[in-house]
Design brief:
This protein has 90 residues and is an all-alpha fold. The chain is built from four helices and no strands. Helix 1 runs antiparallel to helix 4 and helix 3 runs antiparallel to helix 4. The longest helix has 22 residues. The two termini are 14 Å apart.
């Protein structure tokens, strides 16, 4: 999988995390949070811009928040940022 696809997949996973918490489906949100972490691992050894590297570092903190409303908002914001990065690289 290339970088664009991986960033796009990460963005979709984070969007599903946000949707899961907004809809009250914690199981769905938790499942896609695990998928997002797996995508992060795929990007571990790839050269990325510094702002993307910083977002990836902070992503775990975002996904471990106790306040699900805040977590959903942050996951959606990160989703948009990663989606924009995927489009930018194409």
């Amino acid at each position: 999988m290339n970088v664009n696809q991986t960033l796009g997949s990460l963005a979709l996973d984070l969007r599903r995390v946000a949707q899961g918490y907004y809809r009250g489906s914690e199981a769905m949100a938790a499942r896609f949070a695990e998928e997002a972490k797996a995508r992060k691992e795929e990007l571990k050894n790839i050269s990325l811009k510094p702002y993307l590297r910083n977002l990836l570092l902070k992503m775990d903190e975002v996904l471990m928040q106790d306040d699900h409303k805040k977590l959903a908002e942050d996951a959606l914001m990160y989703s948009i940022l990663f989606q924009n990065a995927a489009k930018e690289k194409s």
